[in-house]
Amino acid sequence: INAQLHSGELLHVIGANGTGKSTLLRIFCGLQEPYSGEVCWRGHSITTSRVRLVYHRQLHFIGHELGMREDLTASENLV
Question: Can you tell me the distance from the alpha carbon of 30 to that of 41, in angstroms, rounded to the nearest whole number?
Fold first, then answer.
């Protein structure tokens, strides 16, 4: 996959169950390493700690599920 998103653009990923949508989004967010290739932001790989920090400050991810677990306290969910 080779994709570019510019400021103000959105990415809407759709497809059948088991086709890799969640994996792709996890890779874009830096939560999972790709098997090959890399995710770049402003021309630099997001695996660099300095770039990753700035990248995550600019990243907005809206998933289809609530990002908190009901069996944890608010503090535990934040951790």
Answer: 11
Helix (H) or strand (E) segment spanning residue 44: strand 44-45
Structure tokens at 34: 């790709």
Q: How confident is the model over 21-48, as pLDDT tens digits?
A: 889 988 988 889 999 999 998 889 998 8
Is the torsion defined by CA of 39, 42, 43, 46 positive or negative?
A: negative
Beta bridge partners of 41: 44
- The dihedral of CA 36, 37, 40, 44: what is its sign? positive
